[in-house]
């Protein structure tokens, strides 16, 4: 019996680890999928659709003593920014002092109640199905304990199940998630 001699890989065309054209095609498709997963998808809403979606969120927000006049341009802009950025997974609406805020992250100051909206990664809402697609709720009293609970029971399992994101994004996400839990 003769011993098989392995060549040193010099360049891609010298890669003898592929047994067939099918293997090379499978690897090429996997690379394309990884590249597509890194592309950012942006929604295109008409001004009327965007206004309706912002209105839905405003009506679904349930904070203690929230009045129509509390909605300021900054809070509405925060909602619009969240709707237009599908990679931002959470929107938090809360009072910071006397001012209503809407942001795509948790507040760093003490708040007494907070309404959150969660979506799937890269999810673009449609006006017709918004109420079926959105996940939302309100934390009252111990907002910090509620946030830790939702991070552990909703976010973490969801993120660990995502298989389409590149490894670098997942590592950054897990690091940020852990930093947030430690901060809280």
Strand order of the largest sheet: 2-1-3-4
Q: What is the average of the pLDDT values? A: 81
Derived structural class: alpha+beta
Question: How many DSSP H or I helices?
Answer: 6
Approximate shape: globular
Span between N and C termini?
66 Å
Rg from alpha-carbon coordinates: 23 Å
Q: What is the chain-wise order of helices and strands?
A: HHHEEEHEHH
Report the oligomer. single chain
Level of helix content?
A: 40-55%
Strand content: 5-15%
The low-confidence runs, each spanning 5 or more residues with pLDDT under 50, are none
Report on the biggest sheet. 4 strands, antiparallel
Q: How many strand elements?
A: 4
Structure description:
There is one protein chain. This protein is an alpha+beta fold. It has a domain at about 45-140. Helices cover about 45% and strands about 15% of the residues. A four-stranded antiparallel sheet has the order 2-1-3-4. Helix 2 packs across helix 3 (about 75-85) and helix 5 (about 145-160) runs antiparallel to helix 6. The termini are far apart.
SSE layout and pairing:
Layout lengths: L20 H18 L8 H14 L12 H12 L5 E7 L2 E5 L9 E6 L11 H4 L1 E6 L2 H19 L5 H17 L1
Antiparallel strand pairs: 1-2, 1-3, 3-4
List keywords for this structure.
about 180 residues; alpha+beta; 4-stranded antiparallel beta sheet; globular
Write a brief caption for the model.
The protein has about 180 residues and is an alpha+beta fold. The chain has a domain at about 45-140. It has helices spanning about 20-40, 45-60, 75-85, 130-135, 145-160, 165-184, and strands at about 90-95, 100-105, 115-120, 135-140.
């Amino acid at each position: 019996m003769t011993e098989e001699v392995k060549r040193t890989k010099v360049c891609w065309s010298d890669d003898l680890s592929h047994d067939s054209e099918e293997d090379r095609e499978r690897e090429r498709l996997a690379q394309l999928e990884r590249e597509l997963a890194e592309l950012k998808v942006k929604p295109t809403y008409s001004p009327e659709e965007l206004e309706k979606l912002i209105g839905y969120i405003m009506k679904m927000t349930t904070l203690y003593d929230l009045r129509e006049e509390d909605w300021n341009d900054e809070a509405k802009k925060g909602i619009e920014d969240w709707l237009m950025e599908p990679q931002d997974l959470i929107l938090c609406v809360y009072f910071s002092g006397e001012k209503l805020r809407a942001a795509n992250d948790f507040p760093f100051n003490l708040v007494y109640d907070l309404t959150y909206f969660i979506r799937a990664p890269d999810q673009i809402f449609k006006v017709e199905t918004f109420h079926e697609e959105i996940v939302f709720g309100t934390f009252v009293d111990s907002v910090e304990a509620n946030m830790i609970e939702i991070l552990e029971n909703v976010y973490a399992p969801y993120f660990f199940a995502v298989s389409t994101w590149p490894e670098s994004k997942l590592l950054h996400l897990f690091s940020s998630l852990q930093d947030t839990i430690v901060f809280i």
